[in-house]
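Deviation from plan, reported transparently: coenzyme A complex.
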Amino acid sequence: MRRPEGADALAMHRLVVESKVLDENSTYAYLLMATEFADTSIVAERDGQLHGFVMGYHPPTRPEALFVWQVVVAHAARGSGLGGAMLDSLVERVRRDRHGHPLTLEATVAPSNSASRALFGGFARRHGVPVIELPWYGAELLDAELAHEEEPLLRIGPIAVDLTS
Ligand SMILES: CC(C)(COP(=O)(O)OP(=O)(O)OC[C@H]1O[C@@H](n2cnc3c(N)ncnc32)[C@H](O)[C@@H]1OP(=O)(O)O)[C@@H](O)C(=O)NCCC(=O)NCCS
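Because the crystal trials were delayed, the predicted structure below was used instead.
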């Protein structure tokens, strides 16, 4: 697991397309995240192939938060703990870069996305912190015909202790 770099953007885009669940952004968006937001993102690579990534950023109005925009694991690698390991590793690195300051993980998750809810629930359990769910992006903001589910916000934290300490 490592920071992303520009050369990862095409594979990141492909993982999202192949997920068939996540909203597909342009390759340019993944390139921007892989370069300008590398410090708050992580990729998992084996034998030169990307198997997953988490891309996040600090919202300017909530710098103590790490907002996870997208997290994905390749179909073949799912269910073996990679998603959780990427989240743990990213949060540990970001906290280290910020001299151990407490961090709250945030993500919006559609109500029907049970894998994603299990991923963030497991993260909260491992770190011994609560999950708070708030109304956030309503369906009417995401699609005129309401074809996109609402995206409530999960706030997980504050995380003030590393798992390894
Ligand atoms: C969500 C996703 C990243 C999880 O990755 P993963 O590597 O399979 O997750 P893990 O193996 O670390 O499992 C994390 C937890 O979720 C659970 N889980 C995994 N897949 C699940 C599923 N399909 N349904 C219910 N729970 C599931 C695991 O049992 C584990 O729970 P635990 O911590 O209580 O043991 C992956 O399923 C994926 O890429 N989904 C498509 C993209 C997506 O929906 N992204 C999230 C929205 S941004």
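The chain has one domain: 6-159. We consider this an acceptable substitute for the interim report.
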